[in-house]
């Protein structure tokens, strides 16, 4: 029996209990057939899924020693992670589907669900023999968006697991998955990370300046991958700030100007799932700003998320009363329910604008 003497090299800020557990699964050769990685977006769930897959397929694992993943063998070079991700920018998805034993499916840009056709193709790929004679690994991103038919098709595969096949479901909402799938999976819960740990991570791993690390570690609300996006992509950061400025501007604008600002962001004829996604991102930004304005009202300046916008928030929301702010935050939380019920995204945002 080969003695496994691995060293794991997976870059992640926080959630070390998960990387430690997965490393032990590899070292003890007791990898489960199905995992669910759950938690808010931008905590590194997809990154760790890729590193886990890359390590399982790495040639060094077959020798029982070395660093996983080695980054040099043919298998490692086909799954883009680590340095390749750092070289990327914004929300661009790193390549990885070119590996014959590693497959990813996710919700398409303007589709509400992952279709049964996509899942059937995914299952066919996993049922083929491994190119390297080791594992076949599949990742389902946004697993909560599986259509009922797609979830049932996947369930049949989970009920009859095949040796050497590993499926990782990634979701932000565990309760949205069928209980029958959850019961057949090992659940790994990712949690938000402290701003101090993200601050050090940006300094050490990405060579950020201290001012950048301080600002983005607070702005990301415990989500390291989001902090990296702010640091690496000027376009992503500028778009976020535009969304923030739109909301701050509501306090000094009349209702027509507010509606015009919403039209500029959504477009003249917003429709489909892309409009819903844009609206959800907007609401997340706006909730953070409303919460910051509430904190400023009580003099809790050190706790605000948008420190770079502190001056503008103070001026813009000077007349904001606490009951009105609390009501506004409540309406923003309700807005997600309206979107789920297929209410027009523009109407959802206009309802918020009216109540600022």
Describe the fold and architecture.
The protein is α/β, with parallel strands linked by helices and 356 residues long. The protein folds into 3 domains: 5-189, P-loop containing nucleotide triphosphate hydrolases (Rossmann fold), CATH 3.40.50; 192-232; 234-354, Zinc Finger, Delta Prime, domain 3 (Up-down Bundle), CATH 1.20.272. Helices cover 53% and strands 9% of the residues. It has 17 helices and 7 strands. The strands form 2 sheets. It has a 5-stranded parallel sheet with strand order 4-5-6-2-7, sandwiched between helices. A two-stranded parallel sheet has the order 1-3. β4 (102-105), α6 and β5 (136-140) form a beta-alpha-beta unit. α1 packs parallel to α2.
Strand line-up of the largest beta sheet: 4-5-6-2-7
CATH topology of the largest domain: Rossmann fold
Contiguous uncertain segments of 5+ residues: 82-96
Strand count = 7
The CATH homologous superfamily of the largest domain is termed P-loop containing nucleotide triphosphate hydrolases
Q: How would you state the average pLDDT, rounded? A: 87
- Which H/E pattern describes the elements? EHEHHEHHEHEHEHEHHHHHHHHH
- Total discrete domains: 3
CATH architecture classification of the largest domain: 3-Layer(aba) Sandwich
Shape: globular
The CATH C-level class name of the largest domain: Alpha Beta
Whole-number radius of gyration? 22 Å
> What portion of the residues fall into strands of 2 or more residues?
5-15%
In terms of structural class, how would the helical and strand content be classed?
alpha/beta
Work out the helix count. 17
The helical percent reads 40-55%
Give a quick account of the main beta sheet: strands, pairing sense, barrel closure: 5 strands, parallel
Distance between the termini: 67 Å
